[in-house]
Write a structure and sequence with these properties.
The chain is mostly helical and 108 residues long. It has 4 helices and no strands. The structure holds zinc ion. Zinc ion (ZN) binds next to helix 4.
């Protein structure tokens, strides 16, 4: 871990009320995915299993975003360190990359 020696204050530039709302949405998403995974764990059909496996991936992203909120790194692009932007986080609460880094990754 190479965390810069800065203050632990969140630097996302997000309003605390926005952050609260996004945290609530992430927690709801976590519940949703956990129940999907549970349903899929003893499912015999491929569709339920496919849904469960997709939820496992999504859950990891949600957990990482919640962890980032704890760490105060939430809302900061993992790649370039700039703000992800409130608009993008409202659309994708678990986004860890800003729009330009995400599209660069998608094109890779
Ligand atoms: Zn970026």
């Amino acid at each position: 871990m190479t965390m810069p020696q800065t203050s632990p204050e969140p630097r996302s530039g997000l309003d605390p009320s926005v952050l609260d709302e996004l945290r609530t949405r992430l927690l709801e998403a976590r519940e949703f995915h956990l129940s999907r995974i549970e349903e899929g764990s003893d499912a015999v059909d491929d569709i339920a299993r496919a849904i469960a496996s997709r939820s496992e991936t999504a859950l990891e992203e949600v957990e990482a975003a919640l962890q980032a909120m704890e760490d105060g790194t939430y809302g900061t692009c993992l790649s370039c360190g700039k703000s992800v932007g409130e608009e993008r986080l409202q659309a994708i609460p678990h986004a860890r990359l800003c729009a330009s880094c995400a599209s660069a990754t998608a094109r890779r």
